[in-house]
């Protein structure tokens, strides 16, 4: 089993909160991790029809068999259980009594906000990170990692990436789609997925996506929300505050896993990435995903912002640390060019805040240039970028 960085935080939180909630995309390793960290707890999976029927029809009887708590997988399948869980943990007041997981973020968190507010800690478990794979002994070059993506089964079972992500879409994702929205035309939804893939790293334009798909503005908005709910995409919000009307105020869209992204873009070999017209955006997506994983694995939920004006001035990523900002530029090139730094110095003058500056690039060396930290794609986890 590949050791997950989030393990340390989950164990720490299980000593403080009665319920630990672990959410993340299907097949990201939630079940394996829970069974590994809590081997003495009874495990139940609400995807099983008989178990789900029992839990739904007789919640008190369902919970009566868990004298020492339990790991309850895919709890969003029976959300009414959370009200009964609230009563139990309030009576017992035992830390780490129940571990619950779910692969539908917004629905699950909506139920939690009503039933378990203040009683649960929440961890988002995304697919593997470069750091986790290299700690396990899997070392590879950049395009290999990007093409294969980071879902555990690709590495544990040595699966063909393109086949794996094709099956992923046709099984898990389409199952969630049917459960959530009852979409009848799955071919049109797959077209929508591919068009979204071609927009990764770009500012969201609902009308443009809708025109390309032949769908209404409201439908596109609803389907994007579904992708975010299922941990397929994540939005980066604009950092504009009170800087005036000339700044873009729509979010940017990123796929969470580059392997799935490559599949949707028709990339069937790692060598195709280097000649792909979107290779810069694919690399930016990779960096966004690695930053997000580092945040989540440490139990942090800070937003990753960006800044862009209507004249082309842009900062790829911004972390707001209160009294100072962290500004991050992303460049695929392995060679450092002076032009990479031209936007960095303007941010401190615009905001009046202290700014730490980072450049993440496609090379292998991590070094310092004046007041800018130049960070290799391999070293994102270890760089002092993430707010801790």
Give a topology summary.
Elements: H1 6-14, E1 19-23, H2 30-37, E2 42-45, H3 49-57, H4 59-64, E3 70-73, H5 81-92, E4 98-102, H6 105-115, E5 120-124, H7 130-136, H8 142-148, H9 152-156, H10 161-181, H11 186-197, E6 202-203, H12 206-213, H13 217-229, E7 233-238, E8 252-255, H14 258-264, H15 279-297, E9 305-308, E10 314-320, E11 324-331, H16 346-351, E12 354-361, E13 367-369, E14 372-376
Parallel strand pairs: 1-4, 1-5, 2-3, 3-4, 7-9, 11-12, 12-14
Antiparallel strand pairs: 6-8, 7-8, 9-10, 10-11, 13-14
Helix pairs in contact: 5-6, 8-14, 10-14, 12-13
Defining key terms:
9-stranded mixed beta sheet; single chain; 16 helices; 5-stranded parallel beta sheet; alpha/beta; 388 residues
- Given helix and strand content, the structural type is alpha/beta
- Tell me the series of helices and strands, N- to C-terminal: HEHEHHEHEHEHHHHHEHHEEHHEEEHEEE
Strand order of the largest sheet: 6-8-7-9-10-11-12-14-13
Number of strands: 14
User: How much helix, percentage-wise, in residues?
Assistant: 40-55%
**Low-confidence parts, pLDDT < 50 over ≥5 residues?**
none
- β content, as a range? 15-25%
- Computed Rg: 22 Å
Shape: globular
N-to-C span: 27 Å
The count of helical stretches stands at 16
Mean of all residue-level pLDDT scores: 90
The biggest beta sheet reads: 9 strands, mixed
């Amino acid at each position: 089993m590949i050791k997950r960085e989030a393990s340390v935080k989950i164990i720490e939180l299980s000593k403080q909160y009665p319920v630990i909630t672990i959410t993340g995309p299907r097949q990201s390793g939630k079940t394996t991790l829970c069974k590994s960290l809590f081997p003495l707890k009874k495990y139940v999976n609400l995807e099983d029809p008989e178990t789900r029927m029992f839990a739904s029809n007789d919640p008190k009887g369902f919970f009566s068999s868990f004298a020492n708590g339990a790991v309850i997988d895919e709890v969003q399948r029976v959300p009414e259980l959370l009200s009964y869980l609230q009563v139990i943990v309030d009576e017992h007041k035992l830390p780490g009594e129940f571990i619950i997981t779910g692969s539908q973020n917004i629905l699950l968190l909506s139920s939690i906000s009503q039933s378990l507010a203040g009683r649960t800690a929440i961890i988002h478990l995304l697919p593997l990170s470069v750091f986790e794979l290299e700690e396990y002994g899997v070392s590879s070059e950049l395009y290999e990692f990007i093409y294969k993506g980071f879902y555990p089964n690709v590495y544990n079972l040595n699966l063909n990436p393109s086949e794996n992500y094709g099956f992923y879409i046709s099984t898990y994702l389409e199952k969630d789609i049917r459960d959530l929205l009852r979409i009848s035309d799955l071919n049109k939804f797959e077209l929508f997925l591919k068009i979204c893939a071609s927009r990764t790293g770009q500012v969201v334009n609902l009308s443009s996506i809708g025109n390309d798909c032949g769908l209404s503005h409201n439908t596109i908005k609803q389907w994007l929300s579904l992708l975010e709910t299922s941990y397929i995409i994540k939005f980066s919000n604009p950092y504009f505050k009170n800087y005036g009307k000339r700044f873009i105020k729509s979010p940017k869209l990123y796929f969470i896993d580059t392997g799935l992204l490559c599949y949707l873009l028709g990339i069937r070999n790692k060598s195709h990435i280097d000649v792909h017209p979107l290779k810069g955006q694919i690399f930016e997506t990779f960096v966004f995903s690695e930053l997000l994983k580092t945040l989540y694995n440490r139990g942090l939920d800070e937003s990753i912002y960006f800044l862009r004006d209507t004249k082309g001035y842009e900062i790829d990523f911004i972390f707001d640390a209160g009294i100072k900002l962290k500004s991050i530029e992303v460049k695929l090139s392995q060679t450092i060019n002076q032009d990479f730094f031209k936007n960095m110095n303007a941010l401190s003058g615009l905001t009046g805040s202290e700014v730490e500056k980072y450049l993440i690039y496609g090379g292998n060396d991590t070094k310092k240039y004046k007041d800018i930290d130049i960070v290799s794609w391999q070293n994102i986890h270890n760089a002092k970028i993430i707010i801790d």
